[in-house]
Amino acid sequence: MTAREEMLRRVREALGGSRGPGPPVPRGYARRLPAAEAATRADVLALFTERVADNRAAVRHAGADEVGTAVAAALWGREAKEIVVPADVPFGWLAELDGVRALADAPALDLDALAAADGVVTGCAAAVAQTGTVVLDGGRAQGRRALTLVPGFHLCVVHADQIVGTVPEAVTRLDPARPLTWISGPSATHGIEATRVVGVHGPLHLEIILVED
Amino acid sequence: MTAREEMLRRVREALGGSRGPGPPVPRGYARRLPAAEAATRADVLALFTERVADNRAAVRHAGADEVGTAVAAALWGREAKEIVVPADVPFGWLAELDGVRALADAPALDLDALAAADGVVTGCAAAVAQTGTVVLDGGRAQGRRALTLVPGFHLCVVHADQIVGTVPEAVTRLDPARPLTWISGPSATHGIEATRVVGVHGPLHLEIILVED
Description:
Rossmann fold; 26% helix; 4-stranded mixed β-sheet
């Protein structure tokens, strides 16, 4: 008997002879929202709005023609003077800015510029109603990761058709090979003392504009 | 013999008995550029640039990071003070405008506003080297037709990978169900006197920014 076999024998002995197959692990994940929670599309949007608020982020609703106005209102509300944006955000989102300077991240802004900005405006790749989450994948209107991690305020434009019910539904929409950032409310972290600290690893303030087309 | 048969008999008689199958009609359309003209990708871009110039339009070249600068330079060059744009043009294209006001077409601007504008900035759906043509299909960054037909100056951003060699190649890229606008130089038309008149049915001035990514 080798040392390994002897060790395993002792482990088995210590565990006892007849342990059975162990408790069953449930594998029936909730891949969709319960029918009661998501009877209509409006219910899904209402759930998203509610959960985003639970995550201590603000939500504004806007029609397709009102995105520029909603973005301007959100930035004025935070007294933002200078923001950064991915170069490919639709111009219409920023068309109403008055007294707010927008810097496009092309060529790439340096970290000092990102840190000095009063905020960043992006779109998203998908959003999850059940968890109040927005997901960025670096695609159109989302920019590189530093853009949404360095500035202290993130204003995210979410189109209603980007919102799914659950995380599994979002995963099926997303490309796992892309750099995915899942954002559920402002950045928050817990040290070993279990004290909640916000804004350390990302924006202290998150605000969402929900566009119902 | 019916009247129809009698008529056809007389037509055949008048045409003569033995006309043969008629002259052959060539069906071997030039679907691609001759190899000598398009040995490399750079040749295709050079041909596009040359043909656009032949069409009396100006071409500027820009790197992917320089589109904003090139757009600003083109507008300053025409002393434009106010332009109109589709709401979804990438913000980066307009990020360097200084002293030029951009109006997004959302909600839709009225015709007076379009007519009063000093120009319009759009992208395109495809471009053809052999004919120096840009094609708009109303898709992203292109807007509705009135936007590029009413203002007197059209500045069109073309990415190198949108340029194909020939019209047949462009047709295979485009969706025939979309409203396609094929633009080969500034608007020009000929009345019955065969006098060339420019700028009647569209922009008097066309300028193209060729972005080599």
